[in-house]
């Protein structure tokens, strides 16, 4: 095949569509080697050299489109050199040809074999013969993308161009206003500026960005991919700190704009200073720190009214001080300037500048902890020495202690705690310990004191453990023993004991733990609880593990320990098992056979209270969950056959063993007996707690059962037994049937449908209808404490559609108990499913709101409606005329005595105000007048909701409310 004929080329030039199609075809032929680019250019010469401008534009467009469609490795260096010469010459052509030339240049620079020496020639010609800002927005986008590519891939060549390229680039950018183009520029220029020498053009380079600061730009709401103001501002900031040569101008610009009244300008200026601290060296910023500090001080001391401005200003100051810490001389200069202003105000807690001074002082510590902490702590020490330590609560001392605690914490985070001046720390810590030891005095009345001072003292001691002297630690141990053995005081000092144990285990053991354990038997229940609470966090520390375990085990399993001592020990054991990892629990079980001991304790201890049995069951469950499947199976096989489930203690043991048993462990050998025993207990016991355990175990058992014919026949037998009991009016049988249905529904067993049908029929029963409605709540509701590991995919959706089909006409006729049952089902149905069926369900929800029935029922319906209203659902928008009067009626105390219903109705009215104004205006007057009654509601929470809703309605249609 030969090169395209003139006739073919002329046809291609007639329209853009034909031109693009031809360009793609020619590019494929060039890539296949059918002819060369020189051949094509020669054939196209009639158009490229035509005296007619439009024909030259079309010819250049075709050639550029071909280059754009070519793979990057097709053309060799000679061909590209020829094309570069052609395009650089064409830069002098008519301005109408320029868009086509720009496309061609963009394609050329992306070619892999473009000679490096061609790049300077191309750019010099471009800067000489064309002006970027005179091009259209789209063409400028192509130009900036070309610059972006060249700065990344041709750095050596651009550096050789020196000021020529910089000057041309600055001129090209200068005056750009389009945010999309600015986004491109701001994205690649920071890296370019940081890598290229700016020579004498540094200030000019800075100024082309400074003119945009701060960004004043509102993106189009109709553009889904609109560039945000914040994103553009962030990229601009990176440009302004891209070179240390910008330091002086950056600081000057930020300080100038920080004086603005606009919050956004202040925030951008502060962020610019923050980025300067991150990017510029301390030496570059030191000459301007006084200027920066004066500007930031105006926003932090006493502080801006805007919380965001204050927070960002403190963050910027902290970064400046942190950066300066790398150079001690500069850091000390900065710190002296700042601390010289704030330290005098740290001595008077009542002064209006105390809190701003505190915030700034803590920023100083976060920057250069050794220097700042010493100065700040010394200020507090001098002040504390002038305040008498007395039984009377000292507001000053408490506030000082809280700040001192934060200073210690920040110093520790900077690994500087041990570098602080001991001459300041020791007397300061003596004061704190003395405040803590006030509780040792005979005249200390724990009932009168609020213990705030002691709490503040403990917060300091928790942080300063590494720098406490031996003598101070001895006093602390003595104070801790006094606190833990005090009959009334219950202060939390767990963190202090953990920190002391980590650094001084032998001391803590002998001076605190041993004393607690040695006297444990004589302590009251209150003190024992405190000891457990403070010793258990020490368990992970190997030095104390066995000692604490021995105490807990002794108190749990020693026969002579009586209640409530054993109950406390079981609570401690439960806490221990919940806080430890699997490895620890497995090792504990292997070493002490804990599970066996707990089972024997439950079975052999007469009259063990239900609270203790509850804790034993929880401990057994926790242990079983951590054991391998083989051990779980062996334990069940060993103990389950011997359990009498009619006995409370043994029922709790069964709950512990089976409640969270792994679903892969088969219970087929025990399944029939478990079903019979648990059913018997559920139907015969008067103890609600025991029946609940039986219900949960049955639900979990049928959920995890193997899908065998034998197991399913056993379940059907129990269902039949319950039906017979229901015929005699037994409500317990209805309740148990619901729990069986729950396990079967979640697992997706077919037997669930039979139970659902029976429960649906019971909704018309004269005496069991209420129990039947509640049964649907049991089936639909979530129970976190219930283990149902076998979950059928989309079971909630299937259950919803089953109920919809079975209740049918009863719902449309609004039968009360049918509606209650259905609302319970809706509560657990995914929102997406309800939305798909909203046209059927909407009228039912509205009828429910009109019915003024019981509170729980109405709260569910209101919450479902609220989920739609929050999303501004179109269906609910069309029915606001029905919803609003119903909610107004429900918000009145006379109509609805349930407080939660009134609050939910008012919340729904508030969320309705998010709909478009034109929809709300017809209702505005009626709603604002009707809500006046709720403003006088006797319940504070209802009044709060009423004020919120009424204010929102009052503002409907206001200028800022749309």
From TrEMBL:
SUPFAM superfamilies membership: ARM repeat
GO BP, sorted A to Z: DNA repair; iron-sulfur cluster assembly; protein maturation
Domain of life assignment: Eukaryota
Positions of the MMS19 N-terminal domain: 42-301
Any one of the GO CC terms: spindle
One Pfam family in the UniProt entry: MMS19_C
Subcellular location: Cytoplasm, Cytoskeleton, Spindle; Nucleus
Keyword Zinc carried by entry: no
Residue stretches making up the MMS19 C-terminal domain: 593-912
Keywords of this entry: Cytoplasm, Cytoskeleton, DNA damage, DNA repair, Nucleus, Repeat
Quaternary context: Component of the CIA complex.
Family according to the record: Belongs to the MET18/MMS19 family.
Stated role: Key component of the cytosolic iron-sulfur protein assembly (CIA) complex, a multiprotein complex that mediates the incorporation of iron-sulfur cluster into apoproteins specifically involved in DNA metabolism and genomic integrity. In the CIA complex, MMS19 acts as an adapter between early-acting CIA components and a subset of cellular target iron-sulfur proteins.
Protein's name according to its UniProt entry: MMS19 nucleotide excision repair protein
Annotated organism of origin: Drosophila navojoa (Fruit fly)
Lineage of producing organism: Eukaryota, Metazoa, Ecdysozoa, Arthropoda, Hexapoda
């Amino acid at each position: 095949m030969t090169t395209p004929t003139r006739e073919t080329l002329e046809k291609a030039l007639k329209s853009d569509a034909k031109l693009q199609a031809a360009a793609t075809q020619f590019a494929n032929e060039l890539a296949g080697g059918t002819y060369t680019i020189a051949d094509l250019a020669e054939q196209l010469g009639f158009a490229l050299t035509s005296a007619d401008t439009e024909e030259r534009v079309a010819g250049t467009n075709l050639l550029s489109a071909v280059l754009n469609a070519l793979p990057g490795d097709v053309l060799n260096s000679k061909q590209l050199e020829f094309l570069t010469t052609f395009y650089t010459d064409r830069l002098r052509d008519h301005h109408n040809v320029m868009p086509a030339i720009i496309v061609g240049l963009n394609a050329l620079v992306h070619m892999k074999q473009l000679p490096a020496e061609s790049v300077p020639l191309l750019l010099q010609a471009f800067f000489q013969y064309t002006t970027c800002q005179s091009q259209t927005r789209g063409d400028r986008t192509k130009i900036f993308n070309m610059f972006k590519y060249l700065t990344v891939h041709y750095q050596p060549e651009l550096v050789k161009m020196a000021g020529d390229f910089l000057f041309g680039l600055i001129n090209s950018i200068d005056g750009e206003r389009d945010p999309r183009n600015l986004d491109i520029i701001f994205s690649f220029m920071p890296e370019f500026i940081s890598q290229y020498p700016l020579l004498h053009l540094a200030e000019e380079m800075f100024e082309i960005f400074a003119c945009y600061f701060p960004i004043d730009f509102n993106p189009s709401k109709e553009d889904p991919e609109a560039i945000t103001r914040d994103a553009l501002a962030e990229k601009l900031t990176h440009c302004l700190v891209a070179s240390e040569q910008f330091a002086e101008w950056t600081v000057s610009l930020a300080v100038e704009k920080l004086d603005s009244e606009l919050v956004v300008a202040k925030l951008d200026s502060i962020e610019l200073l923050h980025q300067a601290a991150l990017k510029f060296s301390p030496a570059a910023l030191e000459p301007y720190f006084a200027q920066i500090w004066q500007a930031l001080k105006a926003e932090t001391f006493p502080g801006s009214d805007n919380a965001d401005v204050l927070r960002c200003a403190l963050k910027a100051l902290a970064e400046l001080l942190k950066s300066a810490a790398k150079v001690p001389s500069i850091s000390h200069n900065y710190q002296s300037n700042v601390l010289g202003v704030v330290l005098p105000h740290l001595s008077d807690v009542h002064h209006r500048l105390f809190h701003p001074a505190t915030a700034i002082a803590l920023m100083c510590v976060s920057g250069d902890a050794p220097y700042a902490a010493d100065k700040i702590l010394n200020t507090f020490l001098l002040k504390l020495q002038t305040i008498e330590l007395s039984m009377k609560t000292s507001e000053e001392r408490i506030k000082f202690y809280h700040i001192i605690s934060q200073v210690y914490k920040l110093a520790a985070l900077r690994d500087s705690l041990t570098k602080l001046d001991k001459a300041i720390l020791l007397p300061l810590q003596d004061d704190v310990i003395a405040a803590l030891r006030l509780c040792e005095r005979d005249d200390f009345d724990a009932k009168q004191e609020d213990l705030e001072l002691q709490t503040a003292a403990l917060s300091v001691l928790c942080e300063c453990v590494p720098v406490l002297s031996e003598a101070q630690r001895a006093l602390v141990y003595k104070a801790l023993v006094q606190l833990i053995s005090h009959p009334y005081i219950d202060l939390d000092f767990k963190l202090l004991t953990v920190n002391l144990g980590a650094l001084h285990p032998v001391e803590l053991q002998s001076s605190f733990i041993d004393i607690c354990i040695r006297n444990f038997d004589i302590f009251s229940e209150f003190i024992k609880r405190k000891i457990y609470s403070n010793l258990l966090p020490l368990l992970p520390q190997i030095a104390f593990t066995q000692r604490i375990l021995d105490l807990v085990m002794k108190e749990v399993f020693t026969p002579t320990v009586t209640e409530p001592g054993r109950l406390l020990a079981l609570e401690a054991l439960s806490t221990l098992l919940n806080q430890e990892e699997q490895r620890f629990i497995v090792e504990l079980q292997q070493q002490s056979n804990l599970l066996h001991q707990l089972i024997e304790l439950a079975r052999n201890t007469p009259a063990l209270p239900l609270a203790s049995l509850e804790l034993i069951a929880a401990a057994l469950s926790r242990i079983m969950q951590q054991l391998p499947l083989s051990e779980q199976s062996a334990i069940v096989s060993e103990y389950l056959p011997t359990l009498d489930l009619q006995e409370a203690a043994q029922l709790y043991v069964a709950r512990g063993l089976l409640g969270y048993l792994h679903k892969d462990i088969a219970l087929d050998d025990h399944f029939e007996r478990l079903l019979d025993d648990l059913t018997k207990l559920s139907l015969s016991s008067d103890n609600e707690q025991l029946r609940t355990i039986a219900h949960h175990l049955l639900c979990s058992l049928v959920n995890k059962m193997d899908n065998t014919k034998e197991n399913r026949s056993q379940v059907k037998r129990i269902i039949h037994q319950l039906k017979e009991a229901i015929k005699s009016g037994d409500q317990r049988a209805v309740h148990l049937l619901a729990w069986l249905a729950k396990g079967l529904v979640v697992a997706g067993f077919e037997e669930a449908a039979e139970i659902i049908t029976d429960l649906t029929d019971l909704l018309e029963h004269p005496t069991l209808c209420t129990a039947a409605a509640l049964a649907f709540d049991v089936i639909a509701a979530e129970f976190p404490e219930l283990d149902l590991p076998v979950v059928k995919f989309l079971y909630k959706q299937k259950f919803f559609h089953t109920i919809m089909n079975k209740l049918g006409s009863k719902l449309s006729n609004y039968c009360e108990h049918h509606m209650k049952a259905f609302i319970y089902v809706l509560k657990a149905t995914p929102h997406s499913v309800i939305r798909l069926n909203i046209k059927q369900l909407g009228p039912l929800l509205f009828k429910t709101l009109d019915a003024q029935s019981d509170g729980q029922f109405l709260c569910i319906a209101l919450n479902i409606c609220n989920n739609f209203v929050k999303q501004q659902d179109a269906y609910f928008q069309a029915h606001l005329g029905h919803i609003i009067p119903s909610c107004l009626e429900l918000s009145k105390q006379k109509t609805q005595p349930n407080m939660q219903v009134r609050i939910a109705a008012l919340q729904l009215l508030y969320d309705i105000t998010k709909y478009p104004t034109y929809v709300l205006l017809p209702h505005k007057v009626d709603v604002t007048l009707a809500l006046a009654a709720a403003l006088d509601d006797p319940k504070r929470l209802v009044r709060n909701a009423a004020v919120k809703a009424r204010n929102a309605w009052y503002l409907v249609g206001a200028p800022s409310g749309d």
